[in-house]
C-alpha cells in the first residue's frame, strides 16, 4: 500500500544549487569532467531502480524474513531479494563510486550517497547487503595488500561477492577491547581463526557467490585490550590462485537473530572453527583499519535513517491528503465533503513538517559531508584534503546520531498521522519505525557517537575542528546579516552559534575537573550542534530560495516554508538541551547503584 | 528472560505517605472502613498474580498472537491466556472495585488502579481483556436500564463475560460523527444492528462464555453527525430470561489485524448482520454514554503506559548492573572486572533515571486521579464531588497523553540501554516499545487529548478548572517556600506555574482571534502542563522524603535523587515547549497543501 517517489528535485537542489557540486568536483582530477547531466541521469536511473525493483520487496521481505538451514548453514533471503540483487549487479550499481583500477566507475561519493538514500527509502534491509559490501571494499582498498586487493576488490566492486564486518561477540559490542576470537599463524603466512561472532549484518545469504568477512581477532602474542586486535579477511569460500572459488572455509552461520525490524537482512551468529584468513594491515592495529570501514558505515547509517524519514514523510502526506476526519477548527476547508482532509489540522501538519524538515536538513548535511569525503580522497592540495578530513571527522558522529534520532521521531510522527491504521502492518508505517530503531544502536550507539563528538572531536583538540566549521557560519552570518530578508534565518543561527561556543568552553572547563562531565552532557551537546549545523544549511537553503523565488517555481516557496517551520518549531529544542547540558553530571551520579 | 517485581513499596508510598489515601477514604461512606492493611494485602496478592500468572505469558503471547477460524468466526487467544483468565475470575479480581449490588467487592478505584498498573507491566495484551470489560461495566452501570443491569452487570463483575467498545469503522475513528452502522427498531423494543466495525480490542476470543459488545449505531430517524449516534448493548450470545445463554447473535469477527504490537490481544474486524441489541441510555445520545466508558478507558491507557515504563525500567536496570563494557571516564569503578558495569556511565544512568522518574511521576499522578474518581463517586458532599469531577476532567487527557508519550520515550531509552541486544526479541525490550506505541493512538489520539485539554478543559471555562488545580500548587508553594531544603523544588515549580498562567492567557487571546491557534499549540501545551503536574507531585514527594530521611530508609534517599534528577534533566523540556507553543500556528499553515 505504501508508495515512494525518489526526491530527485531536492537532491538536485542540494547538489547543484546549494553545494555547487560540479564546480567543487572540477578541482578534483578524477571527477573534473563530471557534469550535472551525468549526475542527474544517474539519479534518475538509481531512483528508478529503488522505486521499481527493491521498494516492492520491502513489506514482503519484512513479513518473510530470512531462513537458516541448520544442516547446511545456508541462509535464504526473502523472496525476490536474490533476483533484485542480480539486477543491481547487472546494472553495475555496486561499482558506482569504486576505483576504476578494480573495475569501478569512479563516480564521486556524493552521488553514491544519493543512491543510498533512495535505496534505503525503498528497502533498508535489502540495501544492507550491498551497503556492507561497500564498507568491506573500502577497508581492503585502504589497508589490503596488493594480493588482497587483486583477489577481492574486483569481485566486491562488481558485487558478485558481498562483504561483512565481524566485530561483535556475545560479551562485547561497544567495548571491542574485550574480544576473544583468536588467530593462529600458519606456516604459509595465513591464519586460522576461531571464535564466535554475533549481530553480523548480511552475515550469510544466497545473494552472492562468495561472502568476504572482515574479522577482528587476537594474535597469540597480542597485548590485552583494544591495542591487541588484528583484522583479517576471511572468505566464505577460499579463493584459488586463478580467482575461482575453492573449498568452503569453516566460517558458519549458526543462528539468525529474531529482531524488532530489518527482518529482510540476515543478522547472523557466526562461528569460526579454524577458518582460514589473511591479515589486513599491521598486526594489533586492526581496530584502526576497521575504523575506515566503520566511519563509512556510520555515514551509511545516517543515510538509512534519512531514507526512512523521506519515505515515511511521503506516505504520511498522501494519507493526510486523502483521509477525511473532523472539520478544521477555523471552519470547513472541504465543505463539499463530509469532513476535511486531516492535512488541514495544525498538529498533523506539524508532524508532517517535522519529518520533511528532518529529511531536507539531513539531505543537505549528508551530501555536504559526502562531498567533503570526495575532497578528502581526490583533491590535489594536501591542506584542502586535511581540512576536509577534519570536517568529516567532526560531522560523522552528527550524521550518525542526529539523523537516526531524528528518523525515530519522524517515523513515529508519520505513523501517528495514520491514527490506528499506522499501527497496522499492511499500511507499512510501523515497519519504518521498527527498521529505524536499529540505526540508533549499530555502528556505535548514539551515546558513543556523542562521546566521540564532544570528547574526541571537540574537546581533544580544544575545539579546533569545531571552530573550522564555525568559521563557515561566522562568514555566512557576516555576509547575509545585512540582507533584511535573511535576518529571520541569520539571527537565530548567529545566536545559536554564540551559545554553542559558550557551552563548549563551559563543558571543556568542567571536563577538566571531572571527566564524567563529558558523559553527562554529550548526548544533549550533540543534538545542539546538530541543530546548529541544520540551521546553517536551512539558512543557506533559504538564501537560494529567496533569490530564486522570482522564477515562480513553487519548489522555492516550499523550501522557504520548511526553513521557517524549522526555525520556529524544531530549532527551539536547543533551549532545553542547553539547560540540561549545563545542569551537569551530578544529578546523574547522585543515586547509589544499589538504589536503582 | 525479562523479570518483573511489583513496585509495592512505591505504590504504598504514594497511597499512604503522599496522598493519605485511608484518611481520604474515611470521608467516603462506602470506603470509610478500609484500612491500610487491607489495601496492602490486596496489593501484595495482585502483584503476585501479575508477576506469577500473566507475566510469564507476555513474550509467548506476543510471539503467537491470536488466531481466527474463518469458518466459525471463533478466535483463540495465545496459549495460557484462557487459563490465566480463569484464574483471574476464580480469584475474584474482576469484581475488585465493582458495585456490591452486582456482586462486586466495592473496593476503591485507587486500589484497582494499582492492580492495573501491575497487570499492564506483566502483560498489556492480556490485561486488555479484563480492562475493556471494566469499561463496559461502567457504561452499563451508569446508563443501563434496570433490566440491562440485572442481565449484564453480575456477569461482567464476576468476569464470566467480557466486554468491548465497538466504535471505529473503516472510514471513521476520531470523527465518530461519520459513522454508518444502523439500528432498526423491532416490534419487541429491541433493535437489529447492521454495520462494520474495525479495531475492536478483545473483540472476539475464547476466554469467556459470552462477550458483551457496546456498539455505536444510528437509528433510522437520527440527525446527521455526532448528535445522531445511539449506544446499544449487543451480546455475542443472546441472554434468555433465566440468564442462561441462548442463540448466537449475528455479530461476527471477520478478521484480525496484524499489528505492530499487543499481539496477544485480538483486534477484531466485526461484522453485524442484523444483530439483536438493546438501547443504552437515550436515543441519539450514545456518544455521551460511551464517553463514560471512554474516560475510564483513557485513564486505563495511561496505566498501560505506566506499567510498561515500570517493567522496562526494571529490566534495563538489571541489564545495566550486569553488563560490563568500557571503563568509567573518571576511572575504573570495578577494577576487579575486565570492564565496568554500564550503569557507571552517565548517559546510561540518564536513560534509566528518565524511565524511573516517568514511572514515579506517572504513578503519583494516576493514583491521585483515581482517588479523585473515588471522591467523585462516593463523597457525600456534592460540592466535593463536583470539584473532584472537575479535576478528573482536567487531568484525564494529561494522564492519557503525557504518560503514553513518556512511555514511548522511556521504553525506547530502556531498549537503548541494552545496545544491540535491545533490538533482539528474546530480551523482551523491543516488545515493550512496540506495545507502548498503540497507547499514543487509541481511545483518542494524543493530539485529540491535547485539543480536549486546551480547548475544552482549559479555554472553554476560562481556565477555571486549571485554576483549581493551580491553587493547590500556589498553596503548596506558599507553605513550603519558606523551608530552605525545599527551595530547590519549590522555586522551579512556582516559576513554571507562573509561566503556565501566562502561556494560558496568551493562547486564550490568540485563540479568540483564530481558532486554529489552539490546534497549533495544544500538543506543546499539554506537555508543559504535564510537567507542571509532575513537578508538583515530585515536590510533594521530596517534602515527604526530606521529612523521613532520618529514618535511614534508603527508599527516601532514592526518592529525593529521582526528584532532583527530574528537576534537573526532564522539567527543562518546558523551556523549548513554551517557545514552540508561543511561536503560533502560522509556521504550520503557511505551506500550501499542494506543496507538501
UniProtKB/TrEMBL annotation, chains A, B:
<keyword id="KW-0274">FAD</keyword>
<dbReference type="InterPro" id="IPR009075">
    <property type="entry name" value="AcylCo_DH/oxidase_C"/>
</dbReference>
<dbReference type="Pfam" id="PF02771">
    <property type="entry name" value="Acyl-CoA_dh_N"/>
</dbReference>
<dbReference type="GO" id="GO:0016627">
    <property type="term" value="F:oxidoreductase activity, acting on the CH-CH group of donors"/>
</dbReference>
<dbReference type="GO" id="GO:0050660">
    <property type="term" value="F:flavin adenine dinucleotide binding"/>
</dbReference>
<dbReference type="InterPro" id="IPR006091">
    <property type="entry name" value="Acyl-CoA_Oxase/DH_mid-dom"/>
</dbReference>
<dbReference type="InterPro" id="IPR013786">
    <property type="entry name" value="AcylCoA_DH/ox_N"/>
</dbReference>
<feature type="domain" description="Acetyl-CoA dehydrogenase-like C-terminal">
    <location>
        <begin position="473"/>
        <end position="592"/>
    </location>
</feature>
<feature type="domain" description="Acyl-CoA dehydrogenase/oxidase C-terminal">
    <location>
        <begin position="285"/>
        <end position="451"/>
    </location>
</feature>
<dbReference type="InterPro" id="IPR025878">
    <property type="entry name" value="Acyl-CoA_dh-like_C_dom"/>
</dbReference>
<dbReference type="InterPro" id="IPR037069">
    <property type="entry name" value="AcylCoA_DH/ox_N_sf"/>
</dbReference>
<feature type="domain" description="Acyl-CoA dehydrogenase/oxidase N-terminal">
    <location>
        <begin position="82"/>
        <end position="159"/>
    </location>
</feature>
<feature type="domain" description="Acyl-CoA oxidase/dehydrogenase middle">
    <location>
        <begin position="165"/>
        <end position="273"/>
    </location>
</feature>
<comment type="function">
    <text>Involved in the assimilation of dimethylsulphoniopropionate (DMSP), an important compound in the fixation of carbon in marine phytoplankton, by mediating the conversion of 3-(methylthio)propanoyl-CoA (MMPA-CoA) to 3-(methylthio)acryloyl-CoA (MTA-CoA).</text>
</comment>
<dbReference type="InterPro" id="IPR046373">
    <property type="entry name" value="Acyl-CoA_Oxase/DH_mid-dom_sf"/>
</dbReference>
<dbReference type="Pfam" id="PF02770">
    <property type="entry name" value="Acyl-CoA_dh_M"/>
</dbReference>
<comment type="similarity">
    <text>Belongs to the acyl-CoA dehydrogenase family.</text>
</comment>
<dbReference type="InterPro" id="IPR052166">
    <property type="entry name" value="Diverse_Acyl-CoA_DH"/>
</dbReference>
<dbReference type="InterPro" id="IPR009100">
    <property type="entry name" value="AcylCoA_DH/oxidase_NM_dom_sf"/>
</dbReference>
<keyword id="KW-0560">Oxidoreductase</keyword>
<keyword id="KW-0285">Flavoprotein</keyword>
<dbReference type="InterPro" id="IPR036250">
    <property type="entry name" value="AcylCo_DH-like_C"/>
</dbReference>
<dbReference type="Pfam" id="PF12806">
    <property type="entry name" value="Acyl-CoA_dh_C"/>
</dbReference>
<protein>
    <recommendedName>
        <fullName>3-methylmercaptopropionyl-CoA dehydrogenase</fullName>
        <ecNumber>1.3.99.41</ecNumber>
    </recommendedName>
</protein>
<dbReference type="Pfam" id="PF00441">
    <property type="entry name" value="Acyl-CoA_dh_1"/>
</dbReference>
Amino acid at each position: 500500500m505504501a508508495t515512494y517517489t525518489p526526491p530527485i528535485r531536492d537532491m538536485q537542489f542540494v547538489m547543484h544549487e546549494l553545494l555547487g557540486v560540479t564546480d567543487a568536483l572540477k578541482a578534483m582530477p578524477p571527477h573534473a569532467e563530471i557534469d550535472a547531466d551525468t549526475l542527474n541521469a544517474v539519479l534518475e536511473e538509481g531512483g528508478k531502480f529503488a522505486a521499481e525493483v527493491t521498494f516492492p520487496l520491502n513489506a514482503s521481505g519484512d513479513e518473510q524474513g530470512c531462513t537458516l538451514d541448520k544442516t547446511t548453514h545456508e541462509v535464504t533471503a526473502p523472496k525476490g531479494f536474490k533476483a533484485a540483487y542480480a539486477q543491481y549487479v547487472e546494472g553495475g550499481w555496486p561499482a558506482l563510486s569504486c576505483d576504476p583500477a578494480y573495475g569501478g566507475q569512479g563516480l564521486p561519493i556524493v552521488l553514491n550517497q544519493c543512491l543510498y538514500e533512495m535505496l534505503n527509502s525503498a528497502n533498508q534491509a535489502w540495501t544492507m547487503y550491498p551497503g556492507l559490501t561497500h564498507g568491506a571494499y573500502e577497508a581492503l582498498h585502504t589497508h589490503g595488500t596488493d594480493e588482497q586487493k587483486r583477489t577481492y576488490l574486483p569481485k566486491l566492486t562488481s558485487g558478485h561477492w558481498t562483504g561483512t564486518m565481524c566485530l561483535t561477540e556475545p560479551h562485547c559490542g561497544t567495548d571491542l577491547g574485550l574480544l576473544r576470537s583468536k588467530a593462529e599463524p600458519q606456516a604459509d603466512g595465513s591464519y586460522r581463526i576461531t571464535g564466535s561472532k554475533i549481530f553480523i549484518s548480511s552475515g550469510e545469504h544466497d545473494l552472492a557467490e562468495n561472502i568476504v568477512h572482515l574479522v577482528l581477532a587476537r594474535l597469540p602474542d597480542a597485548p590485552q585490550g583494544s591495542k591487541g586486535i588484528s583484522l583479517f579477511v576471511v572468505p566464505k569460500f577460499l579463493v584459488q590462485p586463478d580467482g575461482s572459488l575453492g573449498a568452503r572455509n569453516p566460517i558458519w552461520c549458526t543462528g539468525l537473530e529474531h529482531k524488532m525490524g530489518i527482518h529482510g537482512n540476515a543478522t547472523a551468529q557466526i562461528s569460526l572453527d579454524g577458518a582460514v584468513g589473511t591479515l589486513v594491515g599491521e598486526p594489533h592495529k586492526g581496530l584502526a583499519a576497521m575504523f575506515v570501514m566503520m566511519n563509512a558505515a556510520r555515514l551509511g547509517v545516517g543515510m538509512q535513517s534519512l531514507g526512512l524519514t523521506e519515505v515515511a514523510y511521503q506516505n504520511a502526506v498522501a494519507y493526510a491528503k486523502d483521509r477525511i476526519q473532523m472539520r478544521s477548527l477555523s471552519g470547513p476547508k472541504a465543505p463539499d465533503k463530509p469532513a476535511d482532509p486531516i492535512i488541514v489540522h495544525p498538529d498533523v501538519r506539524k508532524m508532517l513538517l517535522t519529518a520533511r524538515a528532518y529529511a531536507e536538513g539531513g539531505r543537505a548535511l549528508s551530501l555536504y559531508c559526502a562531498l567533503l569525503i570526495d575532497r578528502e580522497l581526490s583533491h590535489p592540495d594536501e591542506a584542502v584534503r586535511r581540512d576536509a578530513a577534519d570536517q568529516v571527522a567532526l560531522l560523522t558522529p552528527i550524521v550518525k546520531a542526529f539523523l537516526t534520532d531524528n528518523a525515530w521521531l519522524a517515523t513515529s510522527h508519520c505513523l501517528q498521522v495514520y491514527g490506528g491504521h499506522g499501527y497496522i502492518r499492511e499500511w507499512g508505517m510501523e515497519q519504518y519505525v521498527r527498521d529505524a530503531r536499529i540505526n540508533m544502536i549499530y555502528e556505535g550507539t548514539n551515546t558513543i557517537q556523542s562521546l566521540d563528538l564532544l570528547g574526541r572531536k571537540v574537546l581533544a583538540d580544544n575545539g579546533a575542528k569545531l571552530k573550522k566549521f564555525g568559521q563557515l557560519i561566522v562568514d555566512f552570518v557576516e555576509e547575509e546579516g545585512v540582507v533584511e530578508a535573511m535576518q529571520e534565518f541569520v539571527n537565530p543561527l548567529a545566536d545559536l552559534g554564540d551559545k554553542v561556543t559558550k557551552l563548549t568552553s563551559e563543558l571543556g572547563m568542567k571536563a577538566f575537573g571531572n571527566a564524567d562531565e563529558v558523559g553527562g552532557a554529550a548526548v544533549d551537546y550533540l543534538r545542539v550542534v546538530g541543530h546548529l549545523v541544520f540551521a546553517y544549511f536551512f539558512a543557506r537553503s533559504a538564501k537560494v530560495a529567496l533569490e530564486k523565488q522570482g522564477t515562480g517555481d513553487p519548489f522555492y516557496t516550499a523550501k522557504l516554508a520548511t526553513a521557517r517551520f524549522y526555525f520556529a518549531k524544531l530549532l527551539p529544542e536547543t533551549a532545553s538541551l542547553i539547560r540540561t547540558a549545563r545542569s551537569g553530571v551530578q544529578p546523574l551520579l547522585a543515586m547509589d547503584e544499589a538504589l536503582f
